[in-house]
Write a structure and sequence with these properties.
This protein is of the alpha+beta class. Helix content is about 50%, strand content about 15%. The protein has twelve helices and six strands. A hairpin with a 2-residue loop joins strand 5 and strand 6. Helix 2 packs across helix 3 and helix 4 crosses helix 9. The two termini are about 35 Å apart.
Length: about 300
């Protein structure tokens, strides 16, 4: 009786490899491109000397992600309006992994956009996946000593920009559910009790959505006024539903039954402090099915 053939390591670690690429790139479409290229390199590799397939594959994916990031950087510079990470519909187990959920959140990925390519790769590999410095060095083409310095700088850079208050998932979810409830009542003015006075709202439409804000909105008054004006212009019914985006509870805004925006939040002191709305239809495509993330 023959035993089943062992699963290919690339298949075994695909969730991890996609997560590495997505964390470095902030785009599911670009991450999938990286995985396709990495698979071709893996398939053509001489594996006789590969002692640790997981480490080997992470190295390939990191290098391809850095190449891809440098390729798309000009495209992002020419992007119309703010650029936000592509949201993913995630499985409940992502939220159970606190470290993973925090680091794949839209708020965190937005902070990672302020790092240089090598800094971002080093931060992701070290902080999220706990990869040893010597393996990171091999992946990014630096010495271990240089990688330690890059890691330290990246850690300080992110720490200065990430949300300063650790918020329990229950507190975050309560604020988001209040937002959804108020939006569905149509009493947009009631959002003043849900939003922090100095809330910042950023919308990514890629210039493809008529009437979408192309600059960040600062302050609860401006955010509420803009929402009220946008709703008043709708010629179809809208509703807001809870969805699990990048490991946290978020809101999906539907108009005429079709998803028009995925909205993620950062919460401080029980109120929404940051709003990240992705309305670019090209970026909403990944929300058709759940994406498996792993580390």
């Amino acid at each position: 009786m023959s035993s089943a053939a062992p699963e290919d390591p690339f298949t075994t670690h695909r969730g991890l490899l996609f997560t590495v690429a997505y964390e470095i790139l902030g785009s599911a479409a670009d991450a999938e491109d990286v995985l396709q290229e990495s698979w071709l390199r893996w398939a053509a590799a001489d594996r006789t000397d590969v002692r640790d397939p997981r480490a080997y594959l992470v190295r390939i994916v990191t290098r391809q992600s850095l190449n891809q990031l440098r390729t798309v950087s000009r495209r992002r510079e020419e992007y119309v309006g703010p650029w936000l990470p592509e949201p993913l519909l995630t499985t409940p187990d992502v939220a159970d992994d606190v470290v993973l959920a925090e680091n794949v959140s839209v708020a965190m990925l937005t902070v990672l956009e302020t790092l240089g390519p090598t800094e971002r790769a080093v931060f992701v590999l070290r902080e999220v996946f706990d990869v040893p410095f010597d393996e990171i060095a091999d992946a990014v083409g630096k010495t271990p000593a240089a990688v330690r310095q890059i890691s330290h700088r990246a850690h300080e850079h992110v720490a200065a920009r990430r949300p300063r208050i650790d918020v329990a998932a229950s507190e975050h979810d309560l604020a988001v559910r209040r937002f959804i409830e108020v939006m569905n009542t149509g009493d947009v003015q009631a959002l003043m009790d849900v939003l922090a006075p100095d809330v910042v709202s950023v919308t990514d439409s890629g210039g493809l959505v008529r009437g979408a804000a192309r600059r960040p909105l600062h302050g609860a008054d401006r955010v509420v006024a803009f929402l009220a004006g946008s709703i008043a212009k709708l010629d179809e019914a809208y509703d807001v539903i809870p969805i699990q985006i990048n490991g946290t509870l978020a809101a999906g805004i539907r108009v005429g039954g079709q998803l028009q925006a995925a909205v993620s939040f950062a919460v401080e002191d029980g109120r929404i402090a940051q709003v990240f709305s992705v309305a670019n239809p090209q970026k909403l495509a990944a929300l058709d099915a759940e994406t498996r993330l792993a580390r």
